[in-house]
């Protein structure tokens, strides 16, 4: 398993991954900083406002979108020149092959969340927002958003093994995040069943007027059910597929 995971990390184009994550960060924080300033009449000009303005872009659109993009990139080489067939001739169980893809994807999502935190601190310092940094809220949101991506990550790894075209996978991701505009307005007990919406519910802070309705026990149960459902379906499909 270690060798498979090491091989996945070796195949990742880290410079490209870091570049698109940083590009997303620049766009997100420019929009968040602009909204924080322009809406200062309605919301306090503080660290919490800056954070939830960023989550409105990052958690709702970019985080689920990039989860799909990363999954497609992790399977890109295997879809070229019979790569899957060559990989599966190696003496490793098939379930470990797809599990290594999942772990590599989860690592990339964690990297994205860490950079999101760093950019949050940098942006807040640049625009001189007021008050103290709500560390508990921020860390809960960032870690919770990462964990909430697990069902989506498993689904995207499974789909990435099915679609040979990176363009098709990208279009699917783009069209899948659009419904978040509506679904994230629903209570988490309904909206979180759609895996692209789940990270938003975890990242958005509670206790303000715009907070989505989240009942923690129900929300966690939904994440567990969807993750294990996608995990079992994805593993079963991958193991039984006839790779030609």
From TrEMBL:
What keywords tag this UniProt record? Membrane, Transmembrane, Transmembrane helix
Keyword Transmembrane set for record: yes
Q: Which Pfam families match?
A: ABC2_membrane_4 (PF12730)
Asked if the Swiss-Prot or TrEMBL record annotates the protein with the keyword Cell inner membrane, the reply is no
The residues that cross the membrane are 12-31, 51-77, 98-118, 138-159, 166-196, 216-239
Q: This protein is called what? A: ABC-2 type transport system permease protein
Q: Native species of this protein?
A: Lacrimispora xylanisolvens
């Amino acid at each position: 398993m270690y060798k498979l995971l090491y091989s996945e990390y070796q195949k990742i184009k880290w410079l490209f991954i870091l570049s698109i994550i940083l590009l997303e960060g620049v766009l997100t924080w420019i929009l968040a900083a602009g909204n924080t300033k322009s809406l200062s009449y309605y919301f306090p000009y503080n660290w919490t406002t800056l954070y939830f303005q960023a989550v409105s872009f990052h958690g709702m659109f970019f985080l689920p979108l990039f989860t799909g993009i990363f999954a497609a990139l992790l399977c890109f080489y295997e879809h070229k020149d019979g790569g899957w067939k060559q990989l599966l001739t190696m003496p490793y169980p098939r379930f470990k092959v797809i599990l290594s893809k999942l772990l590599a994807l989860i690592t990339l999502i964690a990297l994205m969340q860490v950079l999101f935190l760093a950019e949050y601190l940098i942006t807040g310092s640049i625009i001189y927002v007021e008050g103290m940094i709500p560390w508990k809220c921020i860390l809960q949101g960032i870690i919770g958003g990462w964990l909430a991506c697990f069902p989506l990550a498993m689904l995207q790894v499974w789909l990435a093994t099915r679609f040979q075209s990176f363009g098709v996978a990208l279009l699917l991701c783009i069209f899948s995040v659009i419904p978040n505009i509506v679904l994230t307005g629903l209570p988490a007990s309904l909206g979180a069943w759609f895996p692209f919406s789940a990270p938003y519910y975890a990242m958005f802070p509670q206790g303000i007027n715009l907070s989505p309705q989240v009942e923690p026990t129900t929300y966690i149960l939904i994440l567990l059910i969807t993750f294990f459902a996608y995990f079992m379906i994805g593993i079963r499909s991958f193991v039984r597929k006839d790779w030609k």
